[in-house]
Amino acid sequence: MTKNILGLDLGTNSIGWALVEIDHDNKIVKILGLGSRILTMDAAEVAKFESGAKTESGASKRTSLRSPRKLNERYLLRRDRLHCILNLLDSLPEHYKLSIEFENEKGKRNGKFKKGTEGKLAYYKDDNGRFQFLFKDAYNQMENDFRNKYPEMFYHRKNGNETKIPYDWTLYYLRHKAVTDKDFELTKEQLAWITLSFNQKRGYEKVIGQDEKVQKEGELIDSFVGKVREVNKLEEDAYQIILVDNNNEEVELFKYKEETKIAITKVGDLKEVEIISKYDDEGTIDFKKTEYIINEVREFIITDVRNTGRKIKENFIFEVELETGWVKEQQSKFTPKWKDSKRDFIIKTKYDENGIRIPKGADKGRNINIPKEEDWTLMKLKTETSLTSFNTKNNTKGIASYVYYNLLQNPRQKIKADLITVIERDYYREELDLIYKNQERFHPELGNRDLYEQAIQLLYPNNLNHQKTIKDLDFNHLIKEDILLYQRDLKSKKSLIANCIYEKENFERTDEKTGKKYKNPLKAIHKANPLYQEFRLWQFIKRLKIIKKEEIVNEEIKLNVDVTSQLLTNELKEDLYAFLNDKENVTEKDILGFLNKKYKDLDISTENYKWNFTSEKEPCNPTRYNFILRTKRIKGFDYRTFLTSENEYNLWHFFYSVKKKDEFNKGLNNVISRLLDKTGLPKEFQSELVKNFSSFGGYTNDYGTYSEKAIKKMLPFLRLGKYWNSDDIENILSKSNQEIKQKVLDKEEINGEVKDFQGLWVSSACYLVYGRYSEVGEVQFWQSPYDIDNYLKNEFKQHSLNNPTVEKILVETLHVVKDIWKYYGEEIGKDEEGKIIYNKLFDRIHIELGREMKKNNKQKERDDKQNKENRKANERIVELLRELKQSNSSLQEKSPFQQEKLRILEESLLSSIEYDKDNTEYQLSNGKITKKEIKDITSKEFSKISRSDFERYKLWLDQRYQSPYSGRFIKLSDLFDRKKYEIEHIFPQERITLNALYNKVICETEINKEKKAFTGYSFISNAKSKKVFCSAHDSEVEIIAIKDYEDLVNNNFSGRKREILLSKEIPEEFTNSQLNNSQYISKMAMKLLSNIVREKDEDTFRSKNVLATNGTITTTLKRHWQLNDAWNEIISPRFKRLNALTNTNLFGDYREINGHQVFINTVPEETSKNFDSKRIDHRHHALDALIIALTTENHVNYLNNISSQESSEEKLNTRKAIKFQLTNSRRGFNDEKEWYFLPPAQIKSKDGIDEFEYQFKDFKSKVFKDIAQNALENTIASFKQKNRVIRQRWNKYLKSEDEKLNIIKQENLKQPVNYNVRKRLHEDKFYGKVKLQNKITTLSLEKALIEKYDLVDDELVKEIDVLKNNDGKSVKEIIELLNNKYAKVSVYEKFVATRFGNNLESFSQIPSDKIIKVIQSITDTGIQKILENHLDNYKEVINDKPKFDTENAFSSDGIKELNKNIIELNNGKFHHPIYKVRTSDAMGTKFSVSEEGQKSTKFVVTAAGSNSFCGFYQNGIERKFYIPTLRESVESLKQGFEPCPAIHPEDSDFKLLFVLNPSDFVYVPTEEERENSILIDFNNLNKEQMNRIYKFTDGSGTTMNFVPANISNPIIDIKAEEHKKIKDNLLFWEEINETKKGIVKKIKPLFNEVGLGSENKTKSQNTSNREQIKSSCLKLKVDRLGNISKA
């Protein structure tokens, strides 16, 4: 019988695979193939995944980068639509209208600017080609306002021109006049300018569920925006403030006492109110503990700044006193120059329910801070407060009047991000509405119905429904609501919600391609749905077990006794459900407390009972609980009557469905009113209910497994008692299959009467309702590799796993399996389409998921945290070892084994006896011990203690020096004598594989033999004080009595070991450590692979032919099968090479083991941090996969203790039988007998061992290690590359036709020009071309014109323009005409400039020695001088060199100081405040974004890492190289060519040989192979040739870097600084170069295995033998399986 078994090892970024054929008849195991598939992921991404953090997919990254583009596209779309409407109203100026294309080439509405143009509505070109402002009359009116107030602003400059205020301020003037003066008539063009301005800044529209507060346990936090209704002076320095809800002024929020020296709050001000309700475990709110926090941002004058004299590190602590009398502490190195200045502060004041400040904490209940970027919501409130106050006082609307007023008060006022921050969209809505209403009487076309109907037909030619909806409205609504302020609904993302595996839609759909009818599955239920909450609660009650920790039965202690059936009766479960239904979550303590009230005589508490869950708490009904808390806030309200099941569902549905703020505010009132009517409760509670629910934050996107419809059908079977209804049951039971019904009866152990069908398991409910139970969905059968292809293309839903890292692995795994099937499968013919038909290949699939793959994020976070703590402990231990090493040279501080020894010493005796004398005696329970005796074991032969001895010592400490079975003292002198004492497994190895220390003790050798296969407790119980001769005591010893044993165990042990020692039988939790991983990822992997090997009669998601194993099993078998030795031999050449390079034995040496000289790989202790010999070669994944493939179910069962779930003799015999079959014994270390697993496929019987022959290709052997080693040496890893730079665009969109939405394919997408680029073309920063007066040079006219330099001579520029435009001369002709006249010309050097990222605050990060150079790059020389003068105030001279304190000079305070003194810094001249500057940079390799239009003047730089390709060119035997930019590659690929030019751009004699991309493989031939290529058979490379395969990493210029193909991590990789610190350093190598002067030798430090002398460079241009790779390499083609061929 022959079986093909596929082994898969799935890691974070790797797939190891091995296909083996086992022929049991002929006793042959053949390795058909094996390999490692590596997915390229950077180290940060892997670390992020393994630490439990959420990883980001490539699509997610593109989405985040695409978001700004989408926002811009929507802005442009609104503008285009406005253009069409304003043109219809004849409102656009003629010059602006000419730049717009109102119809496209298909005759459809357009509104876009013509290609290459982008007109400005307010500016037009005069006859001289100069821009002029269109609305001069309005500007002059505005200018008069400023002239009257600030005449000094207007003066004549040296050139005779008069200064002006910005033309753009005219916009605010016009908007202000249009709002405040009903009789002010705007021209049509002015109205169009105003309308288009609203498209640029239109305010913030809140969506329910965004920006919500994080809720703390025991607190309910709600946030409201309160509006000040009244301000009453109470006494001196105190005012009463009354706040009402800003959304409903009838609801009073809070009244409080504000203590301040001056009145700061005015009627109409807005403040954020946080109400924090404290509640206990029962959900009862303590109103006296309720806190009200008033949050606001206010501007105050600082009256004093005092140094307290206290310091924190380098900073002094200053007291900053505000004009209100409030004091804030501020840390700073220097005294803040704040006195008498105004600043914004965030004030957070805490009040009790009576409005009195709570003076607790260091801040006395008032926290004062400086606003940060994340405080934008409070800055928003500040702006809205100022706006509301101004508008109320001046009876106006919107923002324009407020802005114009402030400009009049302070012309230096910054508007954007200062005067106006983010504000609600309603302010813009109100202003625009008022402007249009006031202008309707001046422009009758705004009320013209015919024009309006034309407009809606123009905008919505196919959307008849929307036409009908807005038909009776007007231009005001159309422009305001439909275009400018329109907010689309958020995408539902419904497609990402999991499908229900049972229920489908009621209606049928038709497949476009095949015409087949189908029904889509329903979507899974939201977890906040009350039905889901009930469903989960009944499941919890069903799964809940109550366990009594200890019980005495017949004078025997029984541990962990299940008492669930005694305590949890059906009647009690009813009460338990009611109890849990009102809770958010439940703890073990809550459950036991509930039971203790029911069974007062039992004393049920956590001391003597526990539940069966490992988690600290389990969820109950958080949806209802939240509703209860909000209704409990209302005094006198009957929340139980209100929160009926129906009302609860209606409330949830409202909060789940409504997202828009205005809909939420209107709808909530109606919902609450309707629910009060239903329950008959008084309407007087309505306002309070609305208030308490108005701050509800919505729900996170979290969904279950089943649909709501499925849960409704299953719930009747889960309910019990008064919640259960027989009518719901009978209808379903009548339709159930009798066979299935019987299966449920057997499983649930019920009789079959209707009343028995309550409180069932979910699986039983599924069987009764749907006739099946599946955790993942319907099972499938894949008969050929094309089925896998079909699944990936048509069925697999991208992002369905919600984990991009795991999704990549699973998808690639299926591709690998598909390719294995095609490569190794037997071809049996072709189908009608000409596809090859393959025979079945796989009989079984064995899989191991890496531990990170199996864990959820919480588990990974917890493990990552623990690992960090362990690393800290190890670092501490290493330091201690270094100190000890000074007196003991044999210590290795980096040795993990010796670190473990020290950890025990550190944590045990030595820490407490360090300073005692050697003869000091210590009293133990059964004798004395001296410090000298302890030192004999811990220091005399410290570094030579074997691991087994050390384990003995650790156990000896752990059990307090006593044998648990005799109670006798164990002497140190006898501890390591194996004839006297042995390590004993409490739960015997014959019954369970559990090698953890908590299952081991030290006991007398003879007693251990007497114990046999009993547990410790069972042995003591049966021994009954039997006497046994013990050589350790040289006498007969009585086995300890049961009572004394219990006392000894309770006194000397704790935790898990105590529990094991007191267990008579092996508990279930220990006997089934099989991988029962419930993670969806694991289930998906099992299900998908089961589809390949599932047999026809199987209906479970996991086939019996899929075997799950784990890392512990793989590691164990690897050691027993001697594959660790094979692995060390495979990687040893790398260590030997480093020895040869350094002329040392630092990296290993030969040792004699069992009479053979064996090379032992080592690394220098200084470089061994995090070193793992397994991880340095990619082939270790293939090795693991080979072991996984050859692992049997018996291996898994034995090592995972599957056979020992009961104490019956039958089970024990089964386990013994498995051990007998799979294992054998031999003499090991210290001549001790040890058992080991037999080599793969071999089985021991009474007749002896069935020996197998092992084969790989033509190699055969009886030794499995040799075959495995040979197979691995002939294996090359393959890499998944990211080669795709462009992809053909494909798009569909919805179109309304005949009142139906049809899917339309976009036209002309198959043209070569329609491609999407998959990489960044350039960096985000963009530049504009500038002419710098201080950057002028002289060139020949020819060079200046050909290379397109800007000429300095204006007359020459005009002369050239005339020749070019009027006379039609070419550049060449112009040069010939003018070359004699202008041999040399002055030109501006090519420079570009940008404001991108040049906020002045960013200068604070620039070092002192570079700041002057950066300032000199600023294009405005006036600003240069101002900043240099400002820096002089922060300068100190050290060693005759100036040092500038840039951190403080350009801090927010430093910039305020600069702008405060800007006239003085500018030598007495006026200058606007400086917040941002424009810096210049040489043009260099920057390129324009587009060749025409506005973007032709915008320059960008190529994005880092985007140059993916490297061209190798050859002429004869000489080679040249060229790396194209991404733009060049894209253009070439779009034309269907190679990404590199066919001919070298700089030398046409060199033709393209091949192109390399990162992770491409090359072969480096020997000199003999170069001359005779027939010597290379790529299909059958030998071991030496395999070592000459290299992977291309990157290139730059003519430098090409490679790394040996199978190397995953270097053996050594240290920095120069670390290298210098090494004592007695031998890590040097000799570089030998052949030069004209002869052989030159140079000693260099060794930093890296691959890069050698290059610090942190795990790549090289040369082979291991120092041959240059690029000059002779041949490109290889490597498929997924690692098969090699020449490219």
From TrEMBL:
The active site is at residues 9, 985. Its EC number is 3.1.-.-. It holds the Pfam family RuvC_III. It is an enzyme of class 3 (hydrolase). GO terms for biological process: defense response to virus; maintenance of CRISPR repeat elements. Mg(2+) 2 binds at residues 9, 852, 1181. It comes from the Bacteria. One of its GO terms (molecular function) is DNA binding. InterPro entries: Cas9, Cas9-BH, HNH_CAS9, HNH_nuc, RNaseH_sf, RuvC_III. Residues 913-1075 form the HNH Cas9-type domain. Transmembrane segments: none annotated. Has 2 endonuclease domains. The discontinuous RuvC-like domain cleaves the target DNA noncomplementary to crRNA while the HNH nuclease domain cleaves the target DNA complementary to crRNA. Monomer. Binds crRNA and tracrRNA. NCBIfam families: cas_Csn1. This is CRISPR-associated endonuclease Cas9. It comes from Chryseobacterium arachidis. The gene is cas9.
